[in-house]
Amino acid sequence: MATNTEILGGVETGLREIAADVVSRAMKAGASAAEALVREGEEFSTTVRMGQVETLKESGSRGLGMRVFVGKRAASTYTSDFTHEGIERLVKGALDLVKITSEDPYAGLPDPSQLGSLGDLKVYYEDVYSLPPEQRIEYARRAEDAALSADPRIKNSEGGAFDASTGSMVLANSLGFVGEYRRSYCSIYASPIAQAENGAMQRDYWYSVARTLKKLESPEAVGTEAARRVLRRLGARKIASTQVPVVFDPQVARSIVDDIADAVNGDSIYRQSSFLAGKLGQKVAGENVTIVDDGTLPGGFGSSPFDGEGIPSRRTVVIDKGILKSYLLNTYTARKLKLETTGNASRGLAGNPGIGNGNFFLQKGTRASKEIIANIKQGLYVTEFLGFGVNLVTGDFSRGASGIWIENGELTYPVEEITVAGNLKEMLNNIAEIGSDLEFRGSVASPTIRIDGMIIAGE
Amino acid sequence: MTQNQNLFFQKFGITPGDLQRYLAEALSAGGDYADLYFEYLTSTSISVDESIVKSASQGISAGCGVRVLSGERTGYAYTDDLSPDKILRAARTAALIARGPSQQPIHGFKESSVHQLYQVSSPSVDADVASKLELVMRADKAARAYDPRIVQVRGGYADELRQILVVGSDGTFATDIQPLARFSVFCIAKSGENSSKGNAGGGGRVGIDYFLTEKTPEHFARESARQAIIQLDAREAPAGEMEVVLGPGWPGILLHEAIGHGLEADFNRKGTSAFTGLIGKRVASEKCTVVDNGTLPSRRGSINVDDEGSPTKETVLIEKGILKGYLSDKLSSKLTGMPDTGNGRRESYEHIPMPRMTNTYMLAGQDSPEDIIRSVRRGVYAVNFGGGQVDITNGKFVFSASEAYLIENGHITAPLKNCTLIGNGPDALTKVSMVGNDLQLDEGVGTCGKDGQSVPVGVGIPTLKLDSMTVGGTAR
Questions:
Q1: HSE-CB of B77 using CA atoms within 13 angstroms
Q2: Mean pLDDT of A48-68
Q3: pLDDT band at B4, cuts 50/70/90?
Q4: Any CB–CB contact under 8 A between A396 and chain B?
């Protein structure tokens, strides 16, 4: 819908001015502090199924959000209406709403000395939107085709996809901060379906994501890997309940690391709703475990020059050789906990800032995943989780899973309809092996890990 | 003429002639069908944390989505600017999906007859924010008063009013004004080294009065606190296959995951669901009759008209154990000839509609809940759940129990730690051996995600006994 010049024009055509204008109007209308946020995004997506284009979607939208303070009270409003009347209504709405909220001694904008922005983090490349539409469709088609033609047992598909998007973010506050950045994103995806002789179907997927087309894997590589992943699931069976070492492939290990990101979220900490609350400085994991949050990695999926409050992103060691060193904090939670913000404020258009991770990862070890598996006499290699059975208050962990049985160091038959259960407190201390295969396919990443002591429930 | 037309016709100056022109533009490159979805959404949200109001917000979003169907292809574009040139541009973009001579929309619209399911005298979103705040404060107080071991309470009230106008090139013309309100209370309990959480909430397509008269803040607060306190003494859940009894109401998430998604027409049209080709076959015990019903008054999952302008319906999915039907939208209906069941839904104007559930539940049976519990020698009685998920293609599904008890020799004994239950959709319900006479629907908390789109839904079951299901605990 939009051409490239218009996208580039987005930030230049005055989003900064709009944000600054909203802040000054709020101050004139009686706010003691104010903050405005403008987001603008463009998205393109196409899916191809069984060789035919299935969907083609292209659009853009923008939104404007603001937060006002009157003393220690805060309120927020948002709108998609950028007209003069729309903005007037936004400001008036916020100042009306602030009358009913409570005095909160910890509320407020960040300390002015902490505001700032990093330089270019290589998170925006205009090339993601540069492909002509036919080429984009071709990427999706090629990814699906590579999967469909990999093996005669792959006869159906949920399709291949190519997505591209760009987004701008502008933040301004009454302390004089005005910052902006743009980020780009593109991805190729394939999701084939394979059928066993008895008719039972399995689905799996693979994908590649990047900030620039140049770093995207080829559609053929994505489709071929998707095919490999679905074929190995054919003939999956349930196993008897047991307790054996469990190896988590990086895609599922990353979901456990993501649970840790949630458990160190400052909001959960001050509300005592995390099993890691109050554990700062204590040993919470094995000595082999170091977990880092780094919002400054060039080109990272979790990188940004400043956070949702205008604090420069940074690198924070969360767990250092098993010791809990830091939570992830924004200004509010830092004040509540008498700590310093870690620059992890996240923002939607509405409400108070939340907390989000930068690039959050478990530091890699030295072993190849093959070697980790080779060391196990009997065990389970988990390749997919199903459901969300994690209780961060208690650390109780119980999730549906599928994977491959390990016998004498070899992957043997596929397994499904089982659960893997334990408690995150113990799991962090029972990480027996950490692989060398750390790779970012999103803002949270983990190498292959082996955890001992978990219970598998099946027949 | 409804208020909606006033909104889009008057506030945004859109005329029936404009709508014809936009649809004609959408069909300018061929295409079998085009539609426009106008949405104007206002919402408010307040939350009380540590007994003070830390956050209050309100907002407005408006936009229009244009869709063009051409065979199995869908072209889609949207705009948050409702001026004619922006909508025409979206129409031209969506039209790119089609290749062929331009088509003309049917001249003149026929207004869909819609239900009147929301008995709301004035929308919650227009109510005084201070009165909502008072409700949340009451919940905070009631939760703290429940037990001194409740150490944290977070209460929230969120509501919205979605005004929609859907017009299609086949003459479809439908409007709706959809209210939605939801109350939530989250508690943390602490006792010595043990911590636990409780979570309760509810609402529906109701006004603020509902929380003053039917389900009060105290009701949700006590329920949340009760769950948290019970969980303080929870012991490890067992691991392995055993008898499972599900309590009435929200545990109906079983149906949503085990069969509901698998019966959405898009998956079956493409042959990617484990239920593909099973119409007329037995997929549940003969005690099971399951329906999806978007027409229940005031329910969270109910809508007068779906997001393609079709009136919602009651659809029988399983009748006495036999698979009877799928949930369909316009596209799947056009491609397969199966009836459009009014299940075409979308999260917002930015999203392409697809078949989705509304309120999915099992009809009541003959057994008393007490007899069902008494019949179990050793098993699990699960009464509250967090979320669930399903793999449509192999049929495996999970749902995670947040409140469950051990049943020993026909008696409910110890509370159990959170555990996930896992099963296989096409045969899970064949193991239903007893169906209670106590059908309940959930209190209005469900949100369903599919392809990145969230929509409000409802579920319900009577007390159910499954002879065998895998319980994912840690006790061996």
A1: 26
A2: 95
A3: low
A4: yes
pLDDT tens digits for range B364-399: 999 999 999 999 999 999 999 998 999 999 999 999
Distance from CA of B221 to the nearest CA of A (A): 17
* pLDDT bucket at A5, cuts 50 / 70 / 90: very low
Query: Which of B350, B424, B471 is closest, CB to CB, to A417?
Result: B424
End position of a domain, from candidates A229, A245, A268: A229
Q: Is A286 on the interface with B (CB under 8 A)?
A: no
**In terms of domains, do B214 and B324 share one?**
no
Predicted ipTM?
0.94
Nearest to B239 among A52, A57, A421 (CB): A421
Asked if residue A438 and residue A295 are part of one domain, the reply reads yes
Note the pLDDT of residue A413: 98
Question: Average per-residue pLDDT in chain B?
Answer: 95
**Number of domains into which chain B is organized:** 2
**Residue ranges making up the domain that contains B181:** 3-232
Distance CA A154, CA B111 (A): 45
**Helix count and strand count (H, E) for chain A:** 10, 22
Q: How far apart are the first and last CA of chain B?
A: 65
How many domains would you assign to chain A? 2
How many other C-beta atoms are found inside a 10 Å radius of the C-beta of residue A11?
17
Interchain CB distance below 8 Å, B59 and A101: no
Phi, psi of A377 (to 5 degrees): -75, -55
pLDDT for position A11: 43
E-assigned strand segments in A335-374:
345-346, 354-355, 359-362
pLDDT over 90 percentage in chain A: 94
On whether both A193 and A209 belong to a single domain, the answer is: yes
**Each residue's pLDDT tens digit, A410-453:** 999 999 999 999 999 999 999 999 999 999 999 999 999 999 99
pLDDT value at position A14? 86
- Put simply, the answer to whether B473 touches A457 (Cβ < 8 Å) is yes
Are residue A444 and residue A368 in the same domain, yes or no?
A: yes
d(Cα A4, Cα A124) in Å, to the nearest integer? 13
Residue of chain A with shortest Cα separation from B418? A396
- Measured between CA atoms, how close is B71 to chain A, in angstroms? 9
Residue B1 clears pLDDT 50, i.e. is over it:
no
Q: Are A349 and A377 in contact (CB under 8 A)?
A: no
Cβ count near A134 (within 10 Å): 7
Measured between alpha carbons, how far is A303 from A306 in angstroms, rounded to an integer? 9
Q: What is the CATH number of the domain that holds A56?
A: 3.30.2290.10
Is residue A383 very low, low, confident or very high in pLDDT (cuts 50, 70, 90)? very high
| Residue A436 lies in domain | 236-459
Q: Are residues A414 and A299 in the same domain?
A: yes
Mutate to test the interface with A, among B422, B424, B427, B476 (most CBs of A within 10 A): B422
Q: What is the pLDDT of residues A349-366, one digit of tens each?
A: 988 999 999 999 999 999
Residues B225 and B243 in one domain: no
- The alpha-carbon gap from B317 to the nearest alpha carbon of chain A, in Å, equals 22
Q: Model pTM?
A: 0.95
CB contact under 8 Å between A156 and B272, yes or no, is yes
Task: Residue window 176-205, chain A: list those with CB within 8 Å of chain B.
Answer: 193, 200-203
The residue out of A180, A197, A229 marking a domain boundary is A229
Amino acid at position B207, single letter:
G
* Domain end residue (candidates: B176, B206, B232): B232
